[in-house]
User: Fold these one by one.
Assistant:
Number 1:
Amino acid sequence: MSAAAAVPADAGIAAPAKKGKKKLLIMLVVGVLALALAGGAAVFMMKKKAAAQAAEDGDDSVATSEHKVHKPDLKNPPTFLPLDPFVVNLADKDADRYAQIGITLEVADPKFGELLKAYMPAIRNSILLILAQKASADLLDRPGKEQLAGQIQREAARVMGIEVDEPEAPAAKMAAKDEAKAKDGDDDEKPKAKKRKANAEPNPIRHVHFSNFIIQ
């Protein structure tokens, strides 16, 4: 009789232990899910803030077309027109300096590239005049090279009768960006985008690339 009475006593003790383990497991799962949701929300907010900051920075960085980053169109690749290398005496007054520069023009239309070849003597003349006005100090740093590329891009188009906007100097663009950051938060004080001239046209010469750049 005593052995038979011990069986229900053991069963009554085991049942609460199983229920306790199940409840603990459920609490652990709920805790892990709560942490995962909190982490996902934090990552979402950080990405949203970064995107907003990037968009804000993009509002006051109105760069000229030659310095914008374009996603390449693999179906319609650009046309590259390499020019014969330029060797020119620079405008340094304290010493005789010269530059050897290789230039390649990038255009979107192969037909326009063929048209450029017909104007090449006049284009080379304009580029030589630009280079002859430069001192070595004007070409040593990156802003100087970017400014030269913008001038070549504009003058090559003007030779063909295409009137385009004057390229903005890199130093001026940096000053405009610094001024815009100093006035952050005031929409009325943000610099306006530079208006195009009434007779200005989109420049069919997209970029000016340097294949070599030697100053001696």
Number 2:
Amino acid sequence: MLELDSVQLVYPSFDVCYDLTVPPGSLCALIGPSGGGKTTLLHAIAGFAAPISGSILFEGVDLIPLPPAERPLSILFQDHNLFPHLTVGQNIGLGLDPRLKLNANQRNRVADALGRVDLGGMGSRRPAELSGGQRQRIAIARALVRDKPLMLLDEPFTGLDPGLRLEMIQLVDGLRKEHGITVLMAIHAPEDAGAVADQVAFIDEGRVAALAPPEEILKPGYLPSIDRYFRRS
């Protein structure tokens, strides 16, 4: 279970305070206006931002004292951060060893991850040789090969066409169910959340303003601020 209890961060023109509970193995979609605090929430969990108070517990362990590299998670950004001079296999291998000195077992894990995202046999290609959707799959494979129980996604599929975007979200959801991973996914298009999310958190003005199953929180009239976000009359 992931539990954020009064996690407060203060910036010169912005302060946030998060309370959020995500059951183990579930997918929580984060929606809300730009600048509302979705990315800051993910950065706090990942260790890229330092709270001044509160706790972030995952499986009973407070993550705040741990440096980012020691936290039991993987994170995918909107920019999938692939290195064009490296092969697909090497880009994935970075998730195991930044020096890319992989042993036989690690190379097998890279090959297995490629197969799980339907890119088997493409390990020797360069990212420029692949489509946008295939490059997103590389980023997912790199996160998968790390074998961490918590996955954070910061709008990684923004810019893809709706069909491909939904395909990527369903891929993450399938991997989540197969491996029992807990997933927090910031989503640019909230309608994508309904098919896969166990719960949806509406992040607004640095707070978790609402948390509910998608069939409730996405319904008109659930909360005035959500209606305004959707520009509902």
Number 3:
Amino acid sequence: MTLPAGPPVLALDRAGRATITLSRPRHLNRLHREDLLALRGHVQRIAAEPGIRVLVLTGSGRAFCAGFHLGELEESEHAASDDPRLFEHTVDALEALPVPTIARLNGGVFGGATDLALACDFRVGVEGMELRMPAARLGLHYYPSGLRRFVSRLGLAAAKRLFLLAETVSAAELQRIGYLDALVPAQRLDAVVDALADALLAGAPLAVRGMKQSLNDIASGVFDLPRMREREAACATSDDLREGLAAFAARREPVFRGH
């Protein structure tokens, strides 16, 4: 399907899967302010709809995303009516999304897009893709929540390598350092993403959402035991747990309702 060039497009299916496609292929899906606003709006809609159980984020054309449009950088920082941290807040909202997320990396990942993908729970990349974080070569100090994500998810050594050296990293190396969960030929990308989405859809929504939130809290250095106990208790008294146990005993597939 060919999408019109412009802000990210949201598509939903009946199985509970949402797909957001970045849609500026001519410019490697670079993100303008209007794109970030649209992306944040899509994330808010997904968070508000209980029927959506997994999100796939991808790009159109030959790249996943070239990051923020640098031509708007100075303008956005000095526009009093705008959110000067719009990119950071948008990526943080994606990370905080209750439903599990998959970055379908159809090509290169550059600049802020490296963090956009990292904010997802899983990343599947194609052979031949590359990643580069050029902040140091531009004179930029990256925003704090992005640095925290890189250190907590990839480790300090990998984060320093990506940010301080600003080197181009190959797909194989991205898999080695843990940035990619899977690296596949382009012709297998959809099949692998679909299998991952199906596995997430097969889980009990209440348990999947609760554990995602707790795991992200721990990775962020927040260990809120009472809140985690609340999530644990909600699952322990849920219809989904009763259905899961009944299905296990009957040797059939469970039908979860999310409550």
Number 4:
Amino acid sequence: MTERVYAELPGRGVLEVAGEDRVAFLQGLVTNDVTKAGATRAVFAALLTAQGRYLFDFFIFALGDALYLETEAARLADLQRRLSLYKLRSKVTLADVSSRFAVAAAFGEDAPAALGLAGEGAAKAFADGIAFVDPRLEALGLRCALPRASGFAALETAGFGRADEARYDAHRLAFGVPDGSRDLAPEKALLLESGFDEMNGIDWQKGCYMGQELTARMKYRALVKKRLLPITIEGDLPPAGTPVMLGNDEAGELRSGRAGRALALLRLDAAEAAAKGAPLLAGSARVTPDKPGWMKIEP
């Protein structure tokens, strides 16, 4: 891809976390170091169950005297409700400000450079909103939260053409990056099976957070037996949830996909067998794991 384009992401919303205790409040709950989110940096993080299972993931950025969580719009109210359970006496307020912000992804050849940014998470004020390099993987490009009233004219002025959401979806699938609950089953998925370590979604040096114990145990005891892997598909794309079979044994499950490319949660031994030529099938389609360069799988 050589041209620079942007795609509005109508399925994304923004939750405002304001008040003097906003940093300490989130710091005790989420997987990344919230103190690093500021005017020049955004971070990627998740909220887990007490048992270390995935609930929500989001980008955290700062504007003025508030923090903002960019997350799935359809699940934002549930995120707000769950965070409210932990407020207790913390001086924080939670507000859905999705009507104020529109979210877009801007990508293409060296897209961050168009706004003078470089490095995962690098951020700057932009058009009365914010633009930041995707903290998960710089090659994904930029995320932008801009005033809904003015739209994305500033991106077009910066040289980005308009594209549809499907084009961005194909872009992130090409890099094997998951898309929230489309790829991670809430209350079931585990972060270390889902690439959060390599995607800068976990800070191993920060203090305690919800679900930390299981997450740390999986890392330091090498308990990861499955991974969410990108795959290529020969044949028609089966629906999400289709079992992936290695002979008569279930080896995993298909997740989101588009145009011959998808993600699947696979047993590592099955992925290794496929690398040696054993066929993996999802329905009648043959699937081939294709580990991206950013992904590190411990032996």
